[in-house]
Each structure stands twice: as structure tokens, then as C-alpha cells.
Design goal:
Five copies of one chain form a homopentamer.
Chain A (H helix, E strand, L loop, with lengths): L1 E8 L7 H9 L5 E8 L5 H10 L4 E8 L3 H21 L3 E7 L6 H24 L1 H6 L19
Parallel strand pairs in A: 1-2, 1-3, 3-4
Chain lengths: 155, 155, 155, 155, 155
Amino acid sequence: MKKVGLADTTFSRFDYAPVVLGVLSESNPEVEIVRYTVPGIKDLPVACKRLFQEKCDIVIACGMVGKMPIDKQCSHEASIGLQSVQLSEAKHILEVFVHMDEAKNDKELASICEDRARKHAENVLMLLFDQKKLQGRAGTGRRQGKEDEGPLRLG
Amino acid sequence: MKKVGLADTTFSRFDYAPVVLGVLSESNPEVEIVRYTVPGIKDLPVACKRLFQEKCDIVIACGMVGKMPIDKQCSHEASIGLQSVQLSEAKHILEVFVHMDEAKNDKELASICEDRARKHAENVLMLLFDQKKLQGRAGTGRRQGKEDEGPLRLG
Amino acid sequence: MKKVGLADTTFSRFDYAPVVLGVLSESNPEVEIVRYTVPGIKDLPVACKRLFQEKCDIVIACGMVGKMPIDKQCSHEASIGLQSVQLSEAKHILEVFVHMDEAKNDKELASICEDRARKHAENVLMLLFDQKKLQGRAGTGRRQGKEDEGPLRLG
Amino acid sequence: MKKVGLADTTFSRFDYAPVVLGVLSESNPEVEIVRYTVPGIKDLPVACKRLFQEKCDIVIACGMVGKMPIDKQCSHEASIGLQSVQLSEAKHILEVFVHMDEAKNDKELASICEDRARKHAENVLMLLFDQKKLQGRAGTGRRQGKEDEGPLRLG
Amino acid sequence: MKKVGLADTTFSRFDYAPVVLGVLSESNPEVEIVRYTVPGIKDLPVACKRLFQEKCDIVIACGMVGKMPIDKQCSHEASIGLQSVQLSEAKHILEVFVHMDEAKNDKELASICEDRARKHAENVLMLLFDQKKLQGRAGTGRRQGKEDEGPLRLG
């Protein structure tokens, strides 16, 4: 059975776990889930590293990024760390980061979080079990957190 | 017994050690503490590396960041280094960095330093001994250095 | 027979595969192609790593970059990851990244994508089979995605 | 006997070596010094790597940074390299970088260079022989290149 | 006999090879030269890695950087890669990067390219054969691509 890691943070104002667990629970074949919560996004790379040490095949890392320039810098550092973990393990980490300045209010922010988490949880399953389906979507302008843009319109 | 590293700097205008040591001294189970002081934040990553070589299970790295653009660059370099150490050790470093431009005056700055150090020292203990408690806080908008923001308000 | 990896994304609004496969299919000597599709550009480095694990000799990584500052940051993180993979494998990854703000409309964007993908697919073949030809082009101001600028005009 | 590396550049308009050698020559216990001069700051990381290969216990890396944005970028790349060397060796490199835009004129620039080099040479000795003294200075607002700021004033 | 790698690009509008080869051909002792041409600056790090695999003792990496912000980002990624190669090999790569916005016209740009390439080729030889000469130049404000600035004027 494939093992999926879910890493999240106490900093985030949105609880991604129910969304991700909802998608993963409907997977066929079934997947095992291991969860790891840390304070903030900069703690996610080592959390993912440890999830891979527990034999996860893939990890979904969920975090929220504040509005200040320093927060952007932190997200950059976290993402560099996530790259490093992926390459040392040769395994995917899907990054569900939502920036607080992506939305005008809490409701819109929650909607972005939900959409991004759900679609990336679906991507987790495609990467594990259905790479042909992902390949069929190449170049089709898929978006997580908002509506798909679709392929270029050349007509 | 778990061993906690405390790395700090002579550059900082706030002495984080009493705050951190205060929280850690009340830990149950008891923890052993190893301290390492360096000149500035860019010296912290190798200090942490050496603390892990002395068998620390986790490190709390406390520093202060100046107000100039070059200081931001230094904090970025320090943070990239801290990511690298964490991933090579697969162990957490909680970063207590306070930027001098976060506050209007020395008093406010001290208050931010104290709050961030205290809460991250508590996070150290939860990461070591009580991951279930951290998980219960996922998505609840916790902040270190200021008041919690709480979960998104959707009502 | 040489093996070429093609990594692409579902985020992209342009489907690079037909262009790349077209060029590679005309290669003499013949090349084997392995394809790997991922959600976005930040997933490309680990996709390339895995393509090298499948014995690819070189990889062409095709992605599209959005218009927002955060998208630029993502492309930077992806590129750092691609550097890291190349150096650990000592093998080339040609990066076909097109930024959505390079063009005024969808038609121009498609034309940039096509040109960049085609020329870099040609570069893949030169790197594999004809390094002398590349050397003959050194310092001649070649461009992918637009017209060549040519050598400096000193007359 | 401890061995100290001194790396410097031909790009710098200030000759740091006499200042550093002056401080180190007064060390008790005595230290051995190995020197390595390179063209510019981006050549310093590998110079430091090679100094550690010659069994240095610590290195002081002295460079000057130009005034243009590209110079800032170069200093960032050099600093990332210096982080990487330190972590692979688990040994300190004290970075004495002076930016040409820190001063209004050559005289002020020389004074910053002298002060920063001297105080970091003193830090080298404390890191090697007197970590307790450094610890006593934690949180006291020490500065290299200008006057100490001192601890936060809370009165 | 020492082996020098020369890596260059087809993107560059200036052909650095004749300048570099001219300087190296006059070296006493004689050096062997290995050349590797790639499409652009982001392909240089792995080219250098491969030159070291062919037993080069040092590499000179010549590239040109476009005028757009994305070009600056690419040069940063290339430079980070070059740092990484140098540190894994503990060998120098002298970076001859000329930015297209350094000059007002093609003629001035060619002159910067020629000067930077020639002086760094001379640095290659000093690093290989005459480190004492480099040390004698420490702190003397040497520049590649323009006139030396000389040491600080304190009179």
C-alpha cells in the first residue's frame, strides 16, 4: 500500500487536513496517511524529510504565507528546502502554499485554500497511480486555488 | 534524556537565553541544554551543525536582524544555511529571528523578542514530547512575537 | 541508443510535447524518449531526477511561468532545483521556460513557446551528437524564443 | 597548535591582512596562519574550502563589495557559498565583507574595514579559545565595522 | 601538465575563446586546454562539472547576460550553480560574465568582454602557478572589464 505524508502548520489560519484527508480517503487503491504538524512553513522541509524517513512515497505540504516582505522571504526559504528534500529522496512533495494577500477577505482565502488543497491531493493520487491521466492534461492550463485558465486560445 | 541546543549571538541587542532557559527548565520530562554563542546570525548555521554533532535532538537558534537591506540579505543567507543543516540532520531548528524594524522602540522590540523566544521554546518541547498537541493546533493561526491571529473567520 | 527525457506540466497553457517530439523524431542517430508530466514548474526538478534514474542521458524541461511576482519566485526555485539535479548527475537539463508576460497575447505566446522548444530540442541533439557544431556557434548571439541577435557589430 | 586561514581578494581596495595578522600574532596560545589570495569575493568560498583541506580550524574571509546591484548579487552568491563550506566542514568562516556604499569617502571606508577586520579577528580567537567570553557577550549588541549598539534600553 | 577548461555559450554576442586562448597559449609552463560550448549561462555549471570530470585543474566560464530582470535571475542561478561545482571539486572556476547593460553600445561591450576575459585568463595562470603574485596584489583594487580602481586613497 502507498503511504502519503501530510505536513501542515499551526501558523496557517486554514486547516487543510480535512480537505486533503477527504480526497485521499476516497482513493482506490487505498493509501495510508502519516501526518506531521509543525509551527510554520520553514519547519515543513525537515518535517517532509522525516515523513520520507517513515517510508512515505509522496508528501503534501500545506502552509500559509503572511503578507509582509519577510513572509515572502520565508516562503522562498521553505520552498528551497522543499526542493532539496525532494531531490535527495527523488520523491515528490506537492506544495500547497496560500499567500494571505491572494484574497480580499477571510472567506475568499478559505475558498482558495480549499481548492488548492483538494486539487493537489488529486494530483498526489495521479502521480502515484495514474501518470497517463496527468500526461493527458499537459499544456492545458490547470490551476490550483482558482479556475483553470485552459490552453492558449489561438483562433 | 533529550538534549536541546541553544544558539545565540553577540550582535543581538536582546538576551534570549534567560527566556528560553526558563521555559526549558520547567519541562517534564527534563531536558539537557547545550549553549553556543557566535558573533552574528550568519554564524548560527554552523553553530547548530556543531550542536547536532554534540548529539542535540533539536536546536533553537536566536538572532536579531538589522534594519538595512544588507541585513535582510544576511538573514536570508542564515536561513538558507539553517534549512541545509536541518535537512542534513533530519532534525528541527526553530528559528527565533527578530527584525529590528518590527518595532517602533526598544521596549516593543524586547516584548517581541520575549514572546517569540518563549513560544518557540514551548514549540521545542511540543516537537520533542507532544506532537499530538501541535497537531491539535494545526490551522489555528498561531503567531510567535505577537498575538495569535486565530483561524479564518467565515461567519 | 541515447535516451532523452521530456518533462512538462499541466500548468502550462502550451503543449510543448508535439514540438519537442517532432524535432527529436528526426534525429539521426535515433533517440529513445521518456516523458514525465507533473502539475507545475516546481515539480520539474524531481521529475528530471527521476528521468535520470531511468537512465536518460539528457532532459528537456518545459514549463510556463505566470505573471505575478510569486510566479517569478517559483521559477527561481525551480531553476535552482534544476541546477542541483544537473550537478548531481553531471548531465544537462535544457530549460524551456516561457513567462506569460513575455508576450502581448496568446498567439505571440504560442509562437515564443514553439520557437524556444524547437531550438532547445535542436540543442539537445547537438549536445548529444555534435558538440563541434555548438562550438562553431559560440559567441554568435543565438536566442531561443525570438530571433537571434547575432554577434556584436563593431564596424 | 590551532591553524587559522586568511582568505582575501585583489578586488578589495583595502588590505585587510596587516590588521588580521596583527591581532592573530598577539594570540596566546600562538596560532599558525595560512593565507590565500583570490581575485574577488566569489572566489572566496573555494579558497576557504582549500584552506580547510590544509587543516585550518577556522577561516577569516575578507572581501569588498562594489556599489552596483550586481555587486550585491555577487556578495549574496559568495555568502551562500561560504555557508555551504562551513556546513560541509562544520567549521566557522568569519566573513569580513565591507560594502563600498557603507561609507561617504575612502577614509571612512578604510576605518570600517579596519574595525570590522580587527573585531572579527578577535572573534576568531574567542571561537577558538574562549567560548565562555563570547557567551558572556550574548545579547549585548556588538557590532563590527562600527560602534557597538549595546543591549536594548528598557528604562 | 596543468589542464584548463574553457566553457562558453552560443547566447553570448562576443566570442571569448580567442582572447582566453591567446593568454593561455603564452603560459610558461605550458597548459593543456579543453573547451566546452553550451547554449546559455545556465548550462555552464554542468559544463564545468564535466570539464572537471575530464581532469581540468581550473575552469574559466564565459557568458553574457541579457538586459531584462529575468536575465539577472538567470545569472544568479548560474552563479549559484558555479559555486556548487567549485565546492564539490575544491577547484576554482573564474566567472567571466558580462551584462549587456554594462555598456552603451556594441563597441564598448566588446571592450569590456575582451578586458574581463584577458585579465581573468591571467588570473587563471596566477592561481595555477604564481599565488605569491596574487597575494602581492591583495587589497589593490583590481578590476576586470574596466580600469583598476587601486587601493583606498587616504592622503
